[in-house]
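Notes from hallway chat w/ T.B., transcribed later so I don't forget. T.B. wanted the structure written out for a chain they're using in a teaching module, and asked if we could keep both sequence and structure tokens in one place. Agreed to drop them here.
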Amino acid sequence: MMDSTPTNVMSGEWLFSRLPGWVIDTLSSEQKEAIYKAAEENAWGRHPVNIRFSLPGLGRRYFLTVVGGEEKRSTERRAHEKHRYPLRTAANIFFFVGIAAVFYLIGIVAVALQTSLVAF
């Protein structure tokens, strides 16, 4: 089995690294090449906005990815993903409420600091 180093993951070999060895052994070189090309075509390209970070929390690590750029997905794919990954989920609502609370807290602290500085 192939290793899953970052280079292999980005080059399309990530699929082969997940397959059992006996499955890979049954594939012809033409089949392997076709699978490799199909897996590599779906790899994300470079985006103008690409923010990725992970945070520790409660004994686990959590990640957040924000990717933005020109829309290249087809209308059919966007419709399919809209139903597969709905925006209105409990986790998304809690996330947005948490982000809003952090911004409001920062605003309140800024106003409190400004008020205390003006009083002096």
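Follow-up for T.B.: The beta strands are 49-57, 60-68. Might be a good example for the class.
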